[in-house]
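Re: that backbone. Tokens:
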């Protein structure tokens, strides 16, 4: 199976996440995109009370596409959600053709050498890197190529929505239509999320 993984905090999942996954699916012929919400994100402050809500929202947002699947694999780990450990577990669970492909933004990829067991992780995955900034200079990443990180950079035209800004809009009762799916918007309202 040609597997592509989209791991993230998804706090909350929004349309740019879905657009990126659709683009990868359309252009690279993967059999599925596996969304993996991080239960305990190692690089971000997080509200543990939101962990189950984030998983539920990813399930709601991706239900329309049969090639999207959601995994709660990181909710079964004790401790932080490290991508290396997740990749090791996925190789046990799936019959993967080649390497796992791993969707990541340029902002996170730039810090990849600080990730847990990064030297082992880079041997398990190929990175699909989305540009998340203006005036992007690919030369910045040459050292990663030289250090054995296998990646391709995609410059897909899409609205780069910030989850932080989205949470602020919700907190301030501003409209979020078109930024999240209707199902996710309704779930956030029903559960009173992001009001504090």
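Recovered sequence:
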């Amino acid at each position: 199976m040609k597997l592509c993984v989209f791991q993230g905090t998804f706090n909350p999942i929004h349309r740019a996440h879905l657009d990126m996954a659709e683009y990868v699916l359309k252009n690279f012929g993967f059999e599925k995109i596996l969304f993996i919400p991080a239960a305990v994100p190692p690089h971000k402050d997080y509200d543990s009370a939101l962990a189950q809500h984030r998983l539920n929202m990813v399930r709601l947002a991706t239900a329309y596409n049969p090639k999207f699947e959601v995994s709660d694999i990181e909710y079964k780990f004790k401790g932080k959600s490290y991508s290396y450990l997740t990749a090791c577990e996925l190789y046990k669970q799936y019959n993967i053709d080649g390497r796992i492909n791993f969707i990541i933004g340029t902002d996170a990829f730039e810090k990849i050498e600080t990730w847990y067991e990064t030297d082992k992780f880079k041997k398990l995955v190929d990175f699909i890197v989305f540009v998340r900034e203006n005036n992007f200079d690919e030369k910045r990443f040459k050292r990663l190529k030289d250090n054995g990180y296998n990646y391709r950079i995609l410059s897909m035209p899409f609205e780069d929505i910030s989850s932080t800004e989205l949470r602020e809009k919700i907190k301030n009762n501003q409209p979020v239509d078109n930024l999240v799916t209707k199902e996710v918007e309704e779930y956030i309202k029903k559960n009173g999320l992001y009001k504090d």
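DSSP finds eight helices and six strands in the chain. The first strand starts at residue 3 and ends at 8.
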